[in-house]
Amino acid sequence: MNKEQKIDRMKELINILSEASYAYYAKDEEIISNYEYDRFYDELESLEKECDMVLAGSPTAKVGFEAVDELPKEKHAAPMLSLGKTKEREELKSFLGTQTGLLSWKLDGLTVVLTYENGELLKAVTRGNGEVGEVVTNNARFFKNIPLKISFEGRLVIRGEAVIGYRDFANINAKITDPALQYKNPRNLCSGSVRQLNNQITAERHVRFYAFSLVEAEGLEDKNSRKEQMEFLRNQGFEVVEYKEVTADSILEQVEYFAEKIATYDIPSDGLVLIFDDIAYGKSLGRTAKFPRDAIAFKWADEIRETTLKEIEWSPSRTGLINPVAIFEPVELEGTTVSRASVHNISVMRSLKLGIGDKITVYKANMIIPQIADNLTGSNNVEIPCTCPVCGEKTEIQALNDVQTLYCVNPECPVKKIKALTLFVSRDALNMEGLSEATLEKFVAEGFIRDYKDLFCLERYREQIVQMEGFGEKSYENLIASVETARTTTLPRLIYALGIGNIGVAMAKVVCKHFDYDLEAMRNASEEEVSQIEGVGDVIAGTFCSYFRDTLKMQSLDELLTELTLEKPEAGADADKLKGKTFVVTGSVNHFNGRSELKEIIENMGGKVAGSVSAKTECLINNDTASSSSKNKKAKELNIPILSEEAFMDKYGV
Hints:
The protein contains 24 helices and 26 strands. By secondary structure, the chain is of the alpha+beta class.
C-alpha cells in the first residue's frame, strides 16, 4: 500500500474499533470477537508507526478532557483577507483565463489556523477579525478528523474550516426540547462549539476540520502548485476540502457538478472558491485594499421566485413559543413545489414588513431551506395575535438578546399540555404504554387530564373510557396496569419527563447524580452551582433553575409527587470506596450479569470505567490475565495490574 492507502486503512480501522468499543462498553454487545479487535488494533498500531502518524479518534492515543477559564487572543502572522465575490459563472471562466485552477467548496463554518511543530499540534487559532483570533488549541484536539501526530517534523501552518454536518446538527437539536433554545444553523453551532471553554462539548458535537490552504511548510518552499500542496496535506493525514482541477474549458462543467451535489451534501457550503494552481503567478498579481487577486469566491445564484403572501400561520409549541410561518402561492424552487417558509420570529417578520397580499420573493437557502428573500410591497399589515390560536388566551411578546418572540402564557393551553404530556409518558420518561398523542388529545378534550397528576387518576373515568372509539375493557385494563407500573420510577426519569429546557435523558442522569438524587437540593440550587456540573454550562443552568423558581410548576410537581414512589440508588457505606479510581473491564464475566452490571457497581462505589488502558488506570479486569490482547499488552507496558474478577473482588471488597 502507498501512504494514501495506508491512511485510508487507518481511518477504516479507527471506525471499526470505535464502533466495536461502543457496542462492547455501552450496549454490552460484541460485534467483533476479542481476537478480531486485537488484530485490528495491532494493524492500526503498525500502520501508525509506518506512517509516523496518529489520527484523531485513534484508540491508541486518547486526550483527556479539560476546561479553561478563557480563550486567549493571538495576532495572526499575516492578515487573513476575505475574497472577492461573484454570482456569475462566466466571470469564473474569465477570471481563470489561460491558467489552471482549483475549484473547491466554500464551506460554511469557522475558519481555523493549525500550527504543527515536531509532528505535533502546537496551536489552533480562529480567524477572528482577520487580524486577531482566539486560541482554541484545547478544543481543536477534539475535532473528529485532525491528526494528532504527523510524519512531517518541520513547522507546518495550515488553514481550514471547522464544520458540523447537517445530520449531526439535526441530532443535536433533536435533544433540545425547547424550540426557542434550538440552534438556528450548523455554522452558529460550530462557532459556539469551537469557541467555548470545555473541550468535552467540542468532542460531543462532532466538529470536523477540512484543510483548504497550506500557509507554511518548513523546507517545502519550492512547491509551486496548490494541487501538490493539497496532496501533501492529504498524505499527512488531513482531510482536505473537495476540489476539482479546472481550466477555462472545463470550469462550467465542474461548477455544475458542485451545483448538483449540494442538494445532498452533508457539510454546509455557501458557494465555491476558485484559486490559481500556480502559486508564484497568483502572488505576482498582488492584492487590492480588501482582497487577494489569486482567488475569487463564487456564491450560488439563488433561484428566486416571486409569489403572493396569503397568510401568516401561527404555530404553537410545547414551550408556548408561537412561530410565524408564511403561507404563499405555490412556486417551483430547485425542482420542488414550495408554499410555506418559516419567518423564525417577530423581529424577522417586522424587518421584512410583511403584509397579507404582499408580493414577496422566495428562495431556498443553500438550495435547501425555503426562505423569504424580499418583500416587494412592504405593507407591514400583519397583526400579531393577542390571543393564542389554540386556547384563545393571552399572548405575550418576549425579548431575548434583542430578538422578539411570541409566547402563549396560558399554562392550560391544550397544545402545550398535549405536547408536554406526550413527553411525560414517553419511553425514556414515565413509560406509560397506551397513551399515544392522539389518545392524550381525546382525554384532554374530555376533561380527564388537566395536569400530570391526573394521569394517575384515570380509573375515575373507567365507564367513559371503555366506551370510547378504539378502547374496550382489555385496552383500559392494559392502560391502568401501565399507569400503576409507572408510579414507581426514578428521579432521572422524572426530571426528564418534566420537559425542562435542554435536559435530555443523559443530562437528567448527570444532574441527579451530582445532587445525590436529592430533589429538594435540586430545587434550591443556584445557577452558579448547577453550571459547575460537568457538561452543563450557563444556558442549561439558567433554564433548569428557572423551572424550579416557577410557582405554578412547583405546585404541579408537588401534587404529582403524591402519586409517585421515587427509587434512589443505594449509596451504602461503599459509596466512595472506589472514588478517584479508574478501571477497565474486558472479556467475559462470570459473577455479574454482563460487563454493564459490573460497570454500574463500580460507578455506584464512586469509581469510573474507561474504555482503554492509560497511565491513570487503577487496574485492568480480565479473567484471561495471560492473554496477549492489546489491553493486556498496554497494561503490562504501563505496569498496570491485570486482575481476574475474583482478584478484583477480593482486593476492592466488591
